[in-house]
Amino acid sequence: MSDLRTIAETTGHPHRDLLVEIDHVVFGYDASRTILNDVSLAFGRGKVTAILGGSGCGKTTLLRLIGGVYAPNQGTIRVDGKVVDANDPEQLFALRRRLGMLFQFGALFTDLSVYENVAFPLREHTDLDETMIRDIVLMKLNAVGLRGAAGLDISEISGGMARRVALARAIALDPELIMYDEPFAGLDPISMAIAANLIRILNDTTGATAILVSHDVAACFKICDYAYLMSSRGKVVAEGTPKQLAESEDPEVRQFIRGEADGPVRFHYPARPLAEDFGVGA
Amino acid sequence: MAPGPARERRGEDGAGAMTGLLDGLGRRALEILRVLGHHATFLVDLLRACPVALRRPYLVIAQIHAIGNLSLVIILASGLAVGFVLALQMYYALVTYGAAESLGLIVNLSLTRELGPVVTALLFAGRAGTSLTAEIGLMKAGEQLAAMDMMAVDPRSRVLAPRFLAGLVSMPILAVLFSSIGILGAYVVAVLLIGVDAGNFWSIMQSGVDVRRDIGNGVIKSIVFGFICTFVALYQGYEAKATPEGVAHGTTRTVVIASLGVLMMDFVLTALMFSTP
After folding, report:
1. Which residue is closest to A175 within chain B, CA to CA?
2. Is the pLDDT of residue A13 over 50?
3. Which of A69, A103, A117, A155 is best to mutate for the B interface (most B CBs within 10 A)?
């Protein structure tokens, strides 16, 4: 992926094999704190690319920048060669029609049933008749194994099922780009395996490009083609195939992948010396 | 004589305090302007979204049912109670002057001009307003609004505008029902229990009430109050912090701001509508 990005940077033209390009982006929600610090990432068309990193390192923010929810302070984001302009509602509308997003906790509409949640984007963006909508909704629910749950209310389904319903809703319009925000968070091992398989199978069958944000190394490495590792400083510290990252000798990469409590990423939040806080020694 | 060091220090302290005061005032003024500007932008966005919502009337009708129909019980029960009490109080006052037959007229004017629109609006802010704020706030906390946005669906058109229009439609209907049931309550107390003449009760009311001036202005008031209550409720929900505390603060602010807004606007509207005899 980095080779493709180098070609794109050298020629000045977007590479046709890259669907999303993030180029030297700097972003902070306010001036006092920078979340993303000059990050560059590229997402290959038709690939599953994971963004790994600890909580608060800016992974979800990256997805929101790609979706045009926020504008970067510096740098550019391109989707299919076009620079995303967060201040252009028409362009954003066109962009968002082509992407599906799975939110961390599903973000299902609690006043609608499972069926109506999946039907929502179809009703909003198409003029399909009710028979066609029914067929598509049941097909999508069948793909995630929940055709039988179509009539249930959102309050009647478990967290894992909610994530699958949200996935069915995200793919209702057959998007080119699917963004998954922490799809494995809070799931039991069976639900996690189901979710991981679904992401891979959907990608293989539809050919969509998938961006997967997670801190679950094992689940991501099983299904992704390429991965980026971000640090708490809002920087990309490593990238490569799962095999390359697993074999990396970089201390920060090793600490994250092996889940070590202390290392380059410190256990303690920066603080004054112990002696000063407890009034002893010195 | 040259000023001493103490006097100089007092002078510097005074100047510092004045600068601090002006600084504080300036910050406060800027904050007020920012909040007003934010409200104005939100209102313009909401009004722009209304035509889109009107193209799907079933969304508005569902909200009229949710915030109007479901407020009926509290509105009717309160209207009846207010009618009972008003009739009793007015009877005790009027009978002293031998004017008990005018009771129907007094009750009617009190209800249609003032109590109907105002009490309905206060109840609406407490019942439907808080419900709207909590619903929108929780949708925001659950990322439902963000999800809609990412699906290229404008939450203002899909969620806010139908509720806003439903509030505008529901409030005058509820206020008219409140006044009507209040008059019936007054009839029960005055005519059936106390024994005021039924013919006088209705005929004096009929001759003394002007449909345009009294009932019409009451309806206009309730539309304005509906605007205030619904707008405040939606704004507080949409701008609430996406936390349980944020939603709780939002619902509290809805009741406080909407109630004060209704009472202040009632004074302004009454002065404009009924200043001439």
Report:
1. B151
2. no
3. A103
